[in-house]
Amino acid sequence: MAQEQNQQSTGNKISTTYVTFIVLIVIVISIGALFLAGNAYITGDQLTAGFLALIGLIAMTLSVFILFQSRRQGVEMKIEAPKVMTTIECTNKTCSSKSVREYQRGDYVFKELDVACEKCQGKQMITAIYKEVKEKEKTYGV
Ligand SMILES: [Zn+2]
Q1: Which of 4, 5, 105, 137 is deepest in the core (most CB within 10 A)?
Q2: 88 and 73 inside one domain
Q3: Residue 142 placed within a domain
Q4: Does the pLDDT of residue 7 top 50, yes or no?
Q5: Residue 116 Cα to ligand 1 middle (Å)
Q6: Dist. CA 64 → ligand 1 center (Å)
Q7: Residue 1 has pLDDT above 50, yes or no
Q8: Ligand 1 mean position to 115 CA, how many Å?
Q9: What domain range is 17 assigned to?
Q10: Span 67-116, pLDDT tens digits
Q11: Buried b / exposed e across 45-70, counting CB within 10 Å, b at 16+?
Q12: Are residues 72 and 10 in the same domain?
């Protein structure tokens, strides 16, 4: 069991490192190309300078694109679908027992439940169905 988990986490790390490695290489190539372009421009070789600058810019754009893509994927993986919650209230007015649980298939507002109230054994009714909003994600969302 523990071994399987280790293998999985190593696999994830490798794929992340792999992407970062490629991006790093492309960035190094682009910086090198731009440096050579500047060098060629100084020596008066404008054709080579333009060519190298083009390679540098393409490589830079590519690396930014890869970074953007991998980051977006990471964000997508982090954000979980918001949970849908169901509020259940006791129909007995003197009881006013209220509980919240995860949405279950077949739930709808004003549906009477078969499960009796724990406090008064009265009938329970669904009064609200809503998506759970995580306050933490709101605060730290970039
Ligand atoms: Zn009740």
Answers
A1: 137
A2: no
A3: no
A4: no
A5: 8
A6: 59
A7: no
A8: 11
A9: 2-78
A10: 777 776 666 666 667 789 999 999 988 998 999 999 999 999 999 999 99
A11: eeeebeebbebbeebbebbeebeeeb
A12: yes
